[in-house]
Structures are given as C-alpha cells and as structure tokens.
Amino acid sequence: MAYPPGEGPQRPWPGLEPKPDEVTFEAKVLEGIAKDLEADLKRMLGTGAGTPTDFAKHALPMTLMVDPDYAPGAAFIETLQNGQQYFGLVYQEIIEKYATAIELIYAGAGVQKEVETSNTGLTASI
Fold first, then answer.
1. Tens-digit pLDDT profile for residues 11-26
2. Which end of the chain offers a freer environment for a tag, N or C, measured as fewer CB atoms within 10 Å?
3. What is the secondary structure of the chain as a DSSP string?
C-alpha cells in the first residue's frame, strides 16, 4: 500500500511485503492464536470494565432533568444520547469483524493442516 509522503509507517516493517518463500505457518500456532482471540472476544462480550454493558451503566443516566426552555441543555443531552447510540453501533461492528477474523484464522489453520498432511504423506484422522 502506498502512502502519501510523510504518512504511514516511517520505517520498514518486516512482514508487510513478504516474499513467497519467507512465509511459514503452523496449523497448531494458528489455532492457538484463534483460541486466544476467542477468549478476548468473550471478554469483550461480557459485563466487565470497558464492555458495552459497562459503558451503558455509566455513560448516561436513565433520567435526565433538563429545563425544556433551555435549548443548549436539550441539545447537549441529545448529543450525549446520539454519541452513546453511535458507540454501541460501532462496537457491534467491531465485534462482528473480530468474530469473522477468528473464523478466517481457523479456516487458515484447517487448510494448513491439509497442506502439512499432504507434504508429510500422513493421513489425517477423522
């Protein structure tokens, strides 16, 4: 990916442009990564600190007392409510994409298992 001058990585990062023979995978390592990510996803879906449930408890009181004749106050409350709603939508999208990434890693591990089996001549047990 090309960046405009002065933007993007300022130093070369190994692995961003790998050569075909420089990339190796192990199915067990990929499965381990996916399991670690699943544990993190479970935490993100829970009720602990930093989760949407926690945010909803602390972000906005259930009842807000605002003088209806004070337009800036009403606008402020509306902005808070919109922000909270938008945060929830963005977080949900992150969760969905995170889950998709985990599925792709598991799929890659499955393909790699087949490659390893083909290369070693062993048959996979069912």
1. 555 556 667 777 677 8
2. C
3. ----TT-S-SS--TTSS--GGG----HHHHHHHHHHHHHHHHHHTSSSTTSHHHHHHHHS-SS----TT-HHHHHHHHHHHHHHHHHHHHHHHHHHHHHHHHHHHHHHHHHHHHHHHHHHTPPPP-
Distance CA 85, CA 87 (A): 5
- Give the count of beta carbons closer than 10 Å to the beta carbon of residue 4: 6
Q: Check whether 10 has a pLDDT greater than 70.
A: no
Tokens of 100: 């998709």
* pTM, to two decimals: 0.65
